[in-house]
Amino acid sequence: MNWYLKVLKQYADFKSRASRTEYWMFVLFNLIFASVAMIIDNVLGIAFAGTGVGIFYSLFVLALLIPCFAVTVRRLHDTGKSGRFILLALIPVIGTIWLFVLLAKKSSPGENNYGENPNFSYTYNESTDEMQLIDHSVDSSTEDSVILIIVIWMAFSRFFWALVPLFTESQYSPGWYELVNMLMGIIWAFVPFGLAFAVKSKTKQIVLFILGGIYLLYSLFDVLNSFLNGASAQGGIM
Asked: Transmembrane residues, as ranges (predicted)?
């Protein structure tokens, strides 16, 4: 939570740097809080018709919109890249993979054009009358584990998202739900692939590739099934 609160304190800071740990811890807690907000909307029955999300989720997204963009730009700065690289997200598939690889890269050593390395800071030691270097960095294996946890959380959320219409069908518009479900499935399938190139552990890379493969196969099956159902419906009409 300290990392999450740090991002909130730097609400609109688009100039400095953010470490890999800071960024991915923020992403992890964001996913958790967003899921909780969506569940509250559905439990209270205040979700907007045909969407499954309501006022709590909408307020959460609006409140965190600026800090999300800000910490992403700072994370790019930390790798030595311009914040404009965030526009890679607009390029389907390839741009998404590239952006996630950049966001998962380790900090560029020392000072760069955007400031000092956020993993290190100096403090004055009165007993020795000298400046002391403090290491704030987290072990790479811990950072990689956080990334893996996020991808696993995404897997569970995808499973939850697929089952939701079975229990709250009245809250979802079938046409809207099927389209978003297919598109998000395909896009999310490439997130584990992109992150796999950034982590160091071979075991975690294999797990990420396997999860990405499962995502992709499930999504392609979903698209094919929808296509066949649509073709069958048209054939029945004719």
From this structure: 21-40, 46-73, 85-104, 146-167, 179-199, 205-228
